[in-house]
Amino acid sequence: MSAVADNLRAVMDSIEAAAKRSGRDAGNVRLVVVSKTVAADVVNEAVAAGAKILGENRVQEALPKMEAVGAGVAWHLIGTLQKNKAKHAVGAFELIHSLDGIELARELARQAVKRGIVQDALIEVNVAGESTKHGVGPDAAMSLAREAAALSGLRITGLMCIPPFTENPEDSRPYFRRLKGLLKELNDAGFPMSELSMGMTQDYEVAVEEGATLVRVGTAIFGRR
Fold this sequence. Notes:
TIM Barrel, eight-stranded parallel β-sheet, alpha/beta, 8 strands, single chain
């Protein structure tokens, strides 16, 4: 087995262990293998080893890689999406993790209607109010969900967050709990959502313990870029 395959198996085992610790079914946690800046031949090693979902940050990098990797995997857009790139993202990505405003929501919906499809997306929540991060504040997530729900062609399936970077995974736990609580608030308000995209290489095990349904892991699989 390649190093990539070994690393992928180690991450999947860690997800299973974290799910078990928290009384969850590991089958309810999906691994997004973050393949940004990774060459297609290396990405194919991960796919051969069992990667089912690949995550990319930039539309323009992802599209040629999709052709090189081929069928059999789903692609998620996990990076910031500019409105003028929405037409290229809609339909190419199974899920867009980074919906951060109503104008982008409207453009995604418009492009999806043109293609006769429904595009799934997550609302990105800036849980810590960091000026360097995208996403809506927790207090604005409800209004964005309400406005987006009225758009044809767009389906909001959950929330995503990126907590402040820390060397200590436990520091991320309060932010993951906040996102999970916000999802419950949205559900209670009549917005049926189930996805929680949270946790990266440094803190994905804590994220699983706190209810993540999607974890985004790249460095632990491919090494440092």
